[in-house]
Amino acid sequence: MFILHSQPASIDKEMESKDNHKAELLFTNTFGKDQSAMPEFDAEKESKQFYADIPVKHEPFFLKGAGALDWGMQNRLARVFNPASGRTVMLAIDHGYFQGPTTGLERVDLNIVPLLPYTNALMLTRGILRTTIPASFTHGVVLRASGGPSILKELSNEQIAVDIEDAVRLNVSAMAVQVFVGGEFETQSIHNMTRLVDAGLRYGIATLGVTAVGKDMVRNAKYFRLACRICAELGAQVVKTYYVPEGFETITASCPVPVVMAGGKKLPELDALTMAYRAVSEGAAGVDMGRNIFQSDAPTAMIQAVGKVVHELMKPEQAHDFYQTLRHEIAGVTS
Fold first, then answer.
1. What residues have CB less than 8 Å from 248, skipping those under 6 apart?
2. Is there a contact between 212 and 190 (Cβ–Cβ < 8 Å)?
3. How many domains, in total, are found in the chain?
4. Which of 152, 163, 169, 267 could form a disulfide with 271, with the two C-beta atoms 3.0–4.6 Å apart?
5. Active-site entry in 13, 45, 48, 240
6. Per residue in 111-139, pLDDT tens?
7. What's the CATH code of the domain at 243?
């Protein structure tokens, strides 16, 4: 049988004194004798400025309909859209996901990579992003996230083609999904978009709804008002649609999120610049051009001319002169 005896009080005091001495030595070795090295030691000084008479400044986010989005999503959208102008020059090179090697995109490394410094954002597939685009590219990446059928089949029969976790791994700013309002697989394509919206909200990645138009569908303001509004109502943070010469301002006015104009088929350079100018003048938050840039006779000059129109509202004729000047300068350097 063991009997525990308590220590005399004198011994307890001696041990406590030694512990206090060790603590003092540790404090002195850490901060020195000058205790001003301690955090917040200046708390009693009167030199701090709290500016109690000045209201806290809160700068609202610059994009239409984006004020209530989380900080991370706003930050990603600020990579896609220029905060100074509120608009974007997006370069669309995702055509290969259903068309194969489109003219001008046969060699992305040679034809597209030199254009990267002049674009606000790049719209493309994860295959091209991983294999060809330098990781040093710091502008916005809009990832093509839907796909399935080729040009040989019914295009509206798309499915989600990218997992949200892969979008996160690729550090993309937004995910693009085709929405076929009025198409054979309309409901399926809309559900593709809403599933991406839900996944994107969990991770702070925006969804770009792309209004797709079938071969036999009417392209007018009434149709695009319907398609764009459906995309926005169901959660898309940005909508991409086509320009129409009559009533385009009603499309942008009735859509509560930014509308980006699709470039569409290849046009003469002056016509493409004119279309871009009219679109942004009528409320578009920029353009997402592909063929009108990379199929141009001078893509590097053309994308810079488009930038002048979109961000500086340069008149089309002036922008075309700018394009021609740059084109000749580039030709002189490379000849």
1. 221, 224, 278, 279, 282, 283, 284
2. no
3. 1
4. 267
5. 240
6. 999 999 999 999 999 999 999 999 999 99
7. 3.20.20.70
